[in-house]
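Hi R.,

Here are the chain sequences for the assembly we discussed:
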Amino acid sequence: MAAKPVKSTKTNKKHGVTRDSILDAGLHLFSERGFDGVSVKDVEAAVGLTPGRGSFYRHFKSREELLETIVHREVERVRNMRDMQQRAVGGSLGDRRAELIMQFRLSLTGLNEIKALINLLAREYGRFPELMKQLRELLVDESQELAADDYAEDIRKKIIRGTDSAALSAVVQSALVGYHLANSYFKTAPGGIDSERFINTLVDLILEK
Amino acid sequence: MAAKPVKSTKTNKKHGVTRDSILDAGLHLFSERGFDGVSVKDVEAAVGLTPGRGSFYRHFKSREELLETIVHREVERVRNMRDMQQRAVGGSLGDRRAELIMQFRLSLTGLNEIKALINLLAREYGRFPELMKQLRELLVDESQELAADDYAEDIRKKIIRGTDSAALSAVVQSALVGYHLANSYFKTAPGGIDSERFINTLVDLILEK
DNA sequence: GTCTATAAGTAGATAGAC
DNA sequence: GTCTATCTACTTATAGAC
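And here is the predicted structure of the full complex:
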């Protein structure tokens, strides 16, 4: 299994550019200017290679392979982060209100964390369906189901309002995502409402009493 | 005032391609493939000109001018539509619940109407700030203030819940926009919740009792 | 692992004939 | 109003020297 010669333990970078530095630069460039707005030349320049000399191709076989690698790495990174946080917050206090507020805060900071990834894929809408699917699973499918289960229990206990826990989960998630995107795309909080005020209003809305 | 010679009443198209047909084609092409994904050649082909011959430039001085004209036309179109609907629904029934449901339905169909425009500008994030500003005014600033006024009155009358009408307006608008975008970008209703179920849950949430 | 050089293609835009 | 022809610039990607 460990048959490869001992060149270096992990990132054998000698003195040149690391694969990771290309991934980092690519994520931010693609996110800011779109896939077509970033030439291989731009990426080379960003990591300190002489622009236009094609040294990029020693690291990735094409511009498209770079994009795929970036998305995959980012999705995994965020999935791990979310799972860790979830374990940390889960049923920590008896106070459901405080717990919801904390959860919504984490949702917003989580969305902020993958801002660049969302941006990147939103730009390339319809062009890389396979990559889009990865984002959907992470952002919608997985997140929403988990919350819906909690809401169902709270509804039984008459802690939160309503009867349709799945729909409630969709409303809450949509509100948080919508708020985040309005902030992100228009660089202004909708109606000038800051995130704490937004979260408080949302929590008041779903809590019974 | 009416000094121009009587060439033709409105769209003097002789027999060639109309300016409007280029705008229509441009909107849909840009929306589907992004600004950089659509060459002048593509636009020419779409309206029946020989691709690659540059006849496009008799109608618009550049590809960028085409984009600006498209956005301006679309924003005006939707603003007019919204204002007409608003007059039609305003205080029509004594039933506030039915009225809210109707309003949210109109919001969602309105968002659907400008799907192509939203798509187009979301792709070019950060590149055409002036055009983005037009969309924000239409979609966030104008819409949200109007709703907030209604909510403030309803809160006084104890018809709807909460104390912060501006924040409530932001939550509602964010939920609707978030729901629309999830549908639009992932081509699947979040959590499999259809729009009527979503709207009902949202209305139940904000109504007192 | 980076450089030089270069191939082959496509883009936006213009001038002028019809 | 459309077509022919063309200029210039830039793109992805490869081959081979160091």
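The CA atoms of residues 77 and 114 of chain B lie 10 Å apart. Residues 39-41, 54, 56-57, 61-63 of chain B lie near DNA strand C (CB under 10 Å from a C1').

Let me know if anything looks off.

Best,
T.
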